[in-house]
Amino acid sequence: MVSDLKVAVLGVGMMGSYHATTLSSLVRGATVTVVNDFSAERAAEVAAATGARVVDDPFAAIADPDVDAVVIATPGAAHEAQVLACLDRGIPVLCEKPLTTSIDTAYAVVKAEAALGRSLIQVGFMRRFDAEYAALRELIAKGGLGDPLLVHCTHRNPDVPPHFNSEMMIRDSVVHEVDVIRFLLDEEITSVQVTRGRPTPSAPEGVSDPMMVTFTTEGGRIATDEIFVRTGVAYEVRTEVVGSQGSAFIGLDQNMLVKSTDGRWGGSITPGFVERFGQAYVTELQRWVAAATEGTIDGPGAWDGYAAVAVCEAGVEAVLTGETVAVQMGPRP
């Protein structure tokens, strides 16, 4: 009999507490043994709900003998040191995006893992585990659309906090489409351009919401992303790939469209990311647990996290300058 993977969850805010609950109730083969958060009250609440212990120091939590693997959902500025501590101990880690908050530190993490000769870092790009995205990638890989030429993405939120500015729209929202584009096309993004148009009245002063982001890939393909995070409607994420021999569109499968005899038509839209990608999170964690039990990962790795950081850095510069900005990336170890 193989014993459960003993997991520490660092950072139990919205995302971390969701992961802890999912690991405890919906994922086979895992036990949350340790939780850590800067809020002692929040850590105690999650620990009580999952049967875990609270460890006040995140590095003590990583080093705890009752921990086999770590989920990191702390603020991005803490990720570098915590991920490196997991590497030092030689245990698998699932790190929510971003991998780190700068290109240089992300690349340093990539090189540190490469020096170990083992894949221990997985980055939490959950859309790769969504059934629709997985099917679309397979369709493209098998040549079902011919040569994929264009990718069109839409990312809309009903609302975000007032401090969520144009830069955060790139780093925290568009980052998902960055990984989707790389995942679907299996090539790197080489440049980013951002068009800032008329903002919605609900946007704070100086914030460009919505924006249109245009990416060019190393193969000369073009991808676009409409980012609009204050629609006042619901959570909408859609992707279309247009190829030389057809096109495919995902994002409405879970939202039934109804036409009635009185001439009305409509449906429902998922109110938030959990409703839209809940199963993808479960699948992500289940596959990570199975891989971590064998001492490795099963999903986007450190290089994918680094690439996303590099593209978003170029995206932020594009927001500020209005120029098309080249993505700067080092060689893959």
UniProtKB/TrEMBL annotation:
InterPro entries: Gfo-Idh-MocA_inositol_DH (IPR050424), Gfo/Idh/MocA-like_OxRdtase_N (IPR000683), GFO_IDH_MocA-like_dom (IPR055170), MI/DCI_dehydrogenase (IPR023794), NAD(P)-bd_dom_sf (IPR036291)
PANTHER family on file: INOSITOL 2-DEHYDROGENASE, PTHR43593
Keywords noted in UniProt: NAD, Oxidoreductase
Keyword Membrane recorded: no
Catalytic function, reaction form: myo-inositol + NAD(+) = scyllo-inosose + NADH + H(+)
Role description: Involved in the oxidation of myo-inositol (MI) to 2-keto-myo-inositol (2KMI or 2-inosose).
Stretches of the chain forming a coiled coil according to its record: none
Family statement drawn from the similarity comment of this UniProt entry: Belongs to the Gfo/Idh/MocA family.
Record keyword rRNA-binding present: no
Pfam family, one: GFO_IDH_MocA_C3
Record's protein name: Inositol 2-dehydrogenase
Quaternary structure (record): Homotetramer.
Residue stretches making up the GFO/IDH/MocA-like oxidoreductase domain: 133-248
MF-aspect GO terms: inositol 2-dehydrogenase (NAD+) activity; nucleotide binding
Boundaries of every Gfo/Idh/MocA-like oxidoreductase N-terminal domain copy: 5-123
